[in-house]
């Protein structure tokens, strides 16, 4: 009986977390059955074709960019040895610490008409306005470049892991048949890594669809900017819900593509003996080094230097009490959200371990889908849900007590924390489940034999062993919350700002230098999970090298 109630509670928890998505889906499915599609029909005749065109072009450009940069750098750092290779193998993850909208601000500050580059050109050659042509950074092409530079580590990380695990026997067979290293890569290694490449590219494209700060700042009309415009410009929440439903459908299509690609992973051959890297010499070595340093330079080093320059220029901000109050708001919100999300993840992951029925497994998997859904979509669905609940509470309070309690759910920190839980639960859930997988089930059985109840087993045995996983999950979720922009913009309480919102507001007012300190603070905090991930990669690589006789092959 007790296990039945636990199963019901686990399923109910997952359903509650999915309520914002149900609202979006219901708004979209209601259209064929008499739903109000006046605004959607108008948008379909006017701007939706533009949203679709820009979104598709953006996705196509980003896909080409992240695959080119991610696969190229992954192959070079895995299969070749050249100057700086050991540093680059982990440093190429650093762009993950730089939010895309922050990178957009920095490149606008460097490349715009009043930026350092164009100003230097005019001073050097005596040019005036209209005397020269310079590519426009605030454009669809600029958005593609910025998002590619920030998101290529998704492809790099997953593809590099696949290259490290590929069979040396297969590649050596290709060499024995007369294939050059390039031909081995193109005809053997690349086809075997195709599922990993598709998975990494799909993750990058989901982030592209979810992006708001970059495309809005560059003036590119996509579904995310359209949702904001419909909601705040036209004042039509129903139309915004319907647009969010279309965006949700696109994200689900990408998820299905990613799942299909993983089914093909069985064609990937692995061997206990990893492939032996090639030692590059002369110009080949320096070209390989330059090819890997360039995306790191453009994706992290130059934006970080620009943020540092702005922060030094606005050094007074660092002594301003309001700035540190803003930082405290951000960190306190991130820490509270991280604790809440990890607690929910522990509840669901441990419940799945104790009751591994098909219903529980499906429910927990459903609860973890939020990370693939744009924060703006979750925020729109949640606001409709909570505002409806607030109206019911107000109506009941007025009828029973003659008192209007005001908004208790929507427009409060509760709404923000709810949205963060839905959005980032998957990050904590996967981390906690990975930690639980390393604990043998026999330990649970031994504890139960000694009379321990499930909660006592979790507290006395699992939590001490899960301490590294729980700490990692708290850090990862906290950093993600700190950088989240769309959901925070929509759901934050009145007169409550975070570092992300302040940077966005300053950039929107063309005060880019003032956006430097809050942006730099976010980037410095964002380096924490990247450093943890880099350390894990280095340990894995060193372990692999110890298990093989490392004899470099000269190419």
Automatic annotation (TrEMBL):
Residues 52-256, 327-533 form the ABC transmembrane type-1 domain. It is found in: Cell membrane. The keyword Transmembrane applies. One of its GO terms (biological process) is transmembrane transport. One of its GO terms (cellular component) is plasma membrane. Belongs to the binding-protein-dependent transport system permease family. This is Iron ABC transporter permease. It comes from Pseudidiomarina terrestris.
